[in-house]
Write a structure and sequence with these properties.
Length: 191
């Protein structure tokens, strides 16, 4: 379906920044973007960073989610800036798939999570999408929102645990199948 696929590390790093810049600047045929979000359930792998955040008062899942959502919005704004430039100069990408990862942690609140990201919502993220679409025009890019779960596992922050709501690999495969089908539809829109 696509000529160029670029997978970028989820955690902020120099490698990620270089990858983002290279994806937009070096590829004339960039067709679409899969942008992965997680509704604030970001896993911090660095133990020292995790401890520092907890020592700075981010001791509950809701508090760390708020921080992650703010960080996610800041990163999304940077990516939208790249997309604006690319659409203006290359008329590409033609689609953006905002992928709601870790859907197993909030499958009972999936509509709420999707509304947070969708233009119909009233979150800062939704406002950013609306501003972006107003600026570049809805006819120039198609946006879809796709929940996905690549594995099911609990989310732990400090002593709190958000339990996964998925209990089988079959449910994970269902999410992945839907993801692939919807990406295929997005990719076929540019032919």
């Amino acid at each position: 379906w696509t000529q160029v696929v670029r997978i970028l590390p989820g955690q902020m790093s120099e490698q990620r920044e270089l990858g983002v810049a290279e994806a937009f600047q070096a590829h004339q045929e960039l067709e679409g973007i899969v942008y992965v979000v997680d509704w604030g359930y970001t896993t911090i792998r660095d133990k020292a960073a995790k401890l520092l955040l907890q020592n700075n008062g981010l001791t509950t899942i809701e508090l760390i989610r708020k921080k992650h959502l703010a960080d996610e919005l800041a990163e999304f704004r940077r990516v939208l800036s790249h997309i604006r430039t690319s659409v203006a100069t290359k008329k590409r990408p033609k689609w953006l798939a905002i992928t709601l990862n870790k859907a197993d942690l909030y499958s009972d609140r999936l509509e709420e999570a999707e509304l947070y990201y969708r233009p119909e919502g009233n979150s800062e993220f939704a406002k950013e999408i609306n501003s972006f679409l107003s600026e570049i025009g809805k006819a120039n890019i198609f946006i879809d929102f796709i929940p996905v779960c690549t594995q099911f596992e609990n989310y732990q922050w400090g002593s709190e645990i958000q339990k996964t709501q998925i209990t089988s690999q079959q449910e994970v495969r269902g999410y992945l199948k839907q993801f692939i089908e919807r990406l295929s539809i997005l990719a076929s829109r540019i032919k």
